[in-house]
Amino acid sequence: MQISVVGSGVMGRGIAYSCALSGYKVYLNDLNEEVLKKAKDEIDALLTFSCEKGFIAKETVDHVKENLFYEVDLESAAKDADLVIEAVLEKMDLKIDVFQQLDRICKPETILATNTSTMSPTEIGAQTSRPDKVVAMHFFNPVHKMKLVEVIRGLETSDETVAFVKGISEKMKKQAVEVNEFPGFVTSRMNCLIGNEAMNMLMEGVASAEDIDTAMKLGLNHPMGPLELADLVGLDTRLRNMEYLYQTLGEKYRPCPLLVKYVKAGRLGKKSGNGFYKYT
């Protein structure tokens, strides 16, 4: 069975790595050769680290490398896929463009999944000839560690499609939860509210970033503070999510002005070296 992943950023390469680790033949696609090469280097480094720490066997490393392919041409990457997981930027027009291409390229029976944290699989599926085979699979960063996959059913998504991607999730040792489509699903809707309120408190001088995060970790048992998490996700990504939820769900999701300011300044979090915290 072949899984193809479109987009080799942090989420795309994490999904590709986890799929290959679960025994699937995987094609990772990106139009940008430099980004694709970086993804390969990151995956190779993770394999080496995991083997050295004893998390995976040397035979597993060899098997993953044999079954993971890197391809800049979308048609070559996706034409034989049984499942394609799209992991491009959270921009609806971009996702629709990718899905329309995949609809032309892929076999009629191929399932098309979007790794979106907020956007509508119904709207995406409606732009294809197979809306019953379009679904959202929302993975979490870092993919190889996080156990949850939100499976979001669009209006036309079939029971067979949902069952298929749940089976894939289980083979990847993930717990799948089924969600009926609504903006933000479950996790993003809650997480964006918490993170946005933390940013408002920081802006208002209620407490420092460190103390806000420490309070959430020690007082509410969150494994990571909301500002740390926003830096990890990427402040530009978080802002796009907030803008979409503000547009669809209303005033309580209005992005914090501090978040807008940070993104304008290029303070995007961990990936840029500077966000609510500084990174070396």
From TrEMBL:
InterPro entries: 3-OHacyl-CoA_DH, 3-OHacyl-CoA_DH_NAD-bd, 3HC_DH_C, 6-PGluconate_DH-like_C_sf, 6PGD_dom2, NAD(P)-bd_dom_sf. NCBIfam families: PRK09260.1 (NF006722). PANTHER family: 3-HYDROXYACYL-COA DEHYDROGENASE FAMILY PROTEIN, 3-HYDROXYBUTYRYL-COA DEHYDROGENASE. NAD(+) binds at G7, S8, G9, V10, M11, G12, D30, E90, K95, S117, N141, K271. Residues 184-279 form the 3-hydroxyacyl-CoA dehydrogenase C-terminal domain. Pathway: Lipid metabolism; butanoate metabolism. The record marks H138 as: Important for catalytic activity. Residues 2-181 form the 3-hydroxyacyl-CoA dehydrogenase NAD binding domain. Coiled coil: none annotated. This is Putative 3-hydroxybutyryl-CoA dehydrogenase. Belongs to the 3-hydroxyacyl-CoA dehydrogenase family. Keywords: NAD, Oxidoreductase.
